[in-house]
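Title: Prediction job returns without error message
Component: structure pipeline
Severity: low
Priority: P3
Assignee: unassigned

Description:
Job completed but the reporter wants confirmation the result is attached to the right record. Sequence as submitted:
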Amino acid sequence: MIMLHNDWDSILESEFQQDYYLQLRSFLKEEYQTKTIYPDMHDIFNALKLTPYEKVKAVIVGQDPYINQGEAHGLAFSVQPGAKTPPSLANIFKELQSDLGCTIPNNGCLLPWAEQGVLLLNTVLTVEARISKSHAKKGWEKFTDAVLAALNQHSTPIVFLLWGKDAQNKGKIITNPQHLILQAAHPSPLAGGRFFGSKHFSQANEFLKEKGLEVINWQI
């Protein structure tokens, strides 16, 4: 039984009992026993554990976890303390500097965002080492759809930051007009040029302020 130790437990209780999730769990058990899988199995649900449902103010949707050792720890785009900042995250920090004047941090751990109500949710929550999207189409997409569907019903306005095609495909789930959807290219070096200038961080804070909610301190 998965325990997130916050209000997500009751929201997702039935999801963890669905046939597709039980099949996914069996697949993951075999994968973790026979291969190198990221993140550590105890970190898979860190995004949900660290950001309770009622505290979500913003959602950043990523793709799947980083594929190199010592990086992924269950938060989209974030890396473990001490890990080198990956190119996509470096581009995020550059956009933050341009948008809000934030200084480039000396680490890539986004835990301070999660603690402020930024749900850092990948569309797929696990990956085999060095093989991007190796756990795609195994059931995670349906699970993260359920997470976003629950957030769509949230009583408080939320801003959704959807970067790249995989994230933008999730946008169709967000139908509640009280929420704000911001879309941009993925911050990877391949598309980073189209990510720069999106000013999503300032737009997110302007939206939260307009709704009478506390803004996010994006400085790491």
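Comment from assignee: result matches the submitted record. The chain has a mean pLDDT of 97.
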